[in-house]
Design goal:
The chain has 314 residues and is of the alpha+beta class. The chain is 50% helix and 21% strand. It folds into two domains: 110 residues, Sandwich (Immunoglobulin-like); 113 residues, no CATH class. A hairpin with a 2-residue loop joins strand 8 and strand 9. Helix 2 runs antiparallel to helix 3, helix 3 runs parallel beside helix 6 and helix 4 runs antiparallel to helix 5. The longest helix has 55 residues. Keywords: Membrane, Transmembrane, Transmembrane helix.
């Protein structure tokens, strides 16, 4: 009884199972037919390239419009080439067939004479993808260097002997120059901070001695001229010369003070007396000016040596 029932169920379900199987087979055949209708082509625009210079490579695909086809992007491994950029053309669909094309700009640093390259496209399906490979194209590498010389033994290289002198310009050694400048700056800074005060004192003393020497030479020429022939102009010039030197030596306003104002400023009666005698010679034509001018020179000498000791001990 049970066996008869099972047999009856099998007889009823068999046509249904057969229909399902036929449907699945038809779908698979339809999908395969669609897959077979995908056409991928590729190739280089140029016949040759230079190492490191981009060349154009096109990739096209024709496929049924309901397929989801994608092209390689910048993350794809383009070896032995390197990806530079790409230009994508919009999809063109006619009669249920879509057409896509992309132009890739790629470059290579391989030195082989011939380089081969191809790119795939992908059909995206749920949970997986189908790869469609393009044809492989070839491009020639333009070699600017004869790499075959690397394989020739050194004793067989086509070398040319020459004993002629060739002047090879020397390159300036910037690293050594920079190091030397840094060392000099460091030494100068150490010397300045360690001996700067002594150096400044040395040069100040040197300037003081030179200024005093020039003053004495010029001043005594004027005094010698007055010893031979009295002149109010020479007398006035000698006095102005003395005042200017003293003002520079002591930083006091000698040139801006009259003799009467100097009496209240300097508190030195001997100095004031010599100045009054010289004023009398300039304005009263008193020819006795050599002695007071020599006295002023003695004052300048005494003040110079005093200032010099002050700087040396400062």
């Amino acid at each position: 009884m049970i066996g008869s029932l099972v047999k009856t169920i099998r007889i009823l379900l068999f046509p249904i199972f057969l229909c399902i199987l036929c449907f699945l087979s038809a779908g698979s055949v339809y999908a395969q037919d669609k897959t077979k209708s995908v056409r991928v082509t590729a190739g280089f625009f140029e016949d040759s390239l230079y190492i490191g210079k981009p060349v154009r490579f096109y990739l096209t695909a024709r496929y049924p419009k309901d397929l989801n086809i994608v092209f390689p992007d910048s993350s794809y491994n383009y070896a032995p080439f390197e990806f530079e950029s790409k230009n994508y053309s919009p999809t063109n669909t006619e009669g249920g067939i879509s057409y896509d094309s992309v132009i890739y700009n790629i470059s290579t640093f391989e030195i082989g004479r011939q380089q081969y390259f191809s790119l795939p496209v992908y059909q995206v399906i749920p949970g997986d993808s189908i790869i469609f490979h393009s044809n492989q194209d070839t491009i020639l590498v333009t070699q600017l260097v004869d790499f075959s010389l690397d394989t020739i033994p050194i004793n067989k290289l086509p070398l040319r002997a020459s004993i002629a002198y060739h002047n090879v310009p020397k390159q300036f050694n910037y690293p050594i120059f920079i190091i030397a400048v840094v060392i000099i700056v460091i030494i100068a800074a150490v010397a300045w901070f360690g001996f700067g005060k002594k150096i400044r004192r040395h040069f100040r003393i040197k300037r003081m001695v030179e200024a005093h020497r020039k003053f004495v030479e010029s001043y005594m020429r004027e005094v010698a001229a007055l010893r031979n022939t009295f002149s109010t102009v020479t007398t006035e010039a000698a006095l102005a010369h003395w005042k200017l030197y003293m003002e520079q030596l002591e930083a006091r306003p000698y040139t801006k003070l009259t003799t009467r104002e100097a009496r209240n400023f300097f508190k030195d009666e001997s100095l004031i007396k010599n100045l009054q005698t010289i004023d009398g010679a300039i304005y009263g034509h008193n020819a006795n000016v050599v002695e007071p001018l020599e006295n002023l020179k003695a004052v300048a000498d005494q003040r110079f040596h005093s200032k010099l000791q002050e700087v040396k001990n400062g």
